[in-house]
DNA sequence: AACAAAAGCAACCGCCTAAGG
DNA sequence: CCCTTAGGCGGTTGCTTTTGT
């Protein structure tokens, strides 16, 4: 079967669960060469997977900082509150829960919180009510824009992108985002953050999770795999996403 | 112990959007 | 503008594990 998805793979793509070997290959390849082009990377890394599949695997399981295991009470409440406000915008909700992926939150919602949400909405103060009470007029016509602005103001964490755990030389400075934000929206954001965000989600706690450096063990995985195809300079010039190289010892050196 | 049903979760699919030519 | 391509997102599927009988 030839995959003809938008990722443009030409090689036969295997499906189903990822084997530990495949995980290692992908992890090692990205650690060595960075993410330069999802659709070409599988071939270069010697993986018979679609680019889409590789991206998903990396985003949801392989990148550093992914939290596994049970959701805390605080996590539950955060999800419920933000879901009430944002709806099924799982990636946006995930941005409020460092280390949790949109997929995981989505699954957790359907498995555990959906029922609770229905009960809660009939008995408790809703997020929309909180917004109303702030005396900020949110025109229905404008609400999608307001929501986008809310998302812009989500905590910008060092790892909330495709290359979690990898220093982001290309990360957009927060000033670039705020330049397009109205004062009005800032008011709304501040109000909601004040009402919704517990002290558990302080920056300090984010850092404790996210600023963990690579372990040496991680970095040693398949440091040199004969099956890897090195992305050429041309490739990087065409699609310079997150190029980086390793130093011999223990730190990544990012190059612009 | 064996089976069925339910729950959990990883992965896939298809649509949408942004960027570039 | 229009088209193509790559990336991202949410909905859904289906396999695996757990629980109940």
In what range is the share of β-strand residues?
under 5%
User: SSE order in H/E notation?
Assistant: HHHHHHHHHHHHHEE
Instruction: Summarize the amount of helix as a percent range.
Output: 40-55%
Radius of gyration: 21 Å
Overall 3D form: elongated
Q: Low-confidence spans: pLDDT under 50, at least 5 residues?
A: 1-6, 8-12, 124-190, 196-223, 237-256
Number of helices: 13
Q: Give the number of domains.
A: 2
Q: Got a strand count?
A: 2
By secondary-structure content and strand pairing, the structural class works out as: mainly alpha
Distance between the termini: 38 Å
Largest sheet entry: 2 strands, antiparallel
Largest sheet, spatial ordering of strands: 1-2
Mean pLDDT: 59
Question: Could you describe the 3D structure shown?
Answer:
The protein is mostly helical. The chain has two domains: 84 residues, no CATH class; 138 residues, no CATH class. It is built from 13 helices and two strands; from the N terminus they run H-H-H-H-H-H-H-H-H-H-H-H-H-E-E. Strands 1-2 form a two-stranded antiparallel ribbon. A hairpin with a 5-residue loop joins strand 1 and strand 2. Helix 4 packs across helix 6. It is elongated, with a radius of gyration of 21 Å. The protein binds a DNA duplex (21 and 21 nucleotides) through helix 3 and helix 6. One of its GO terms (cellular component) is nucleus. Its main location: nucleus.
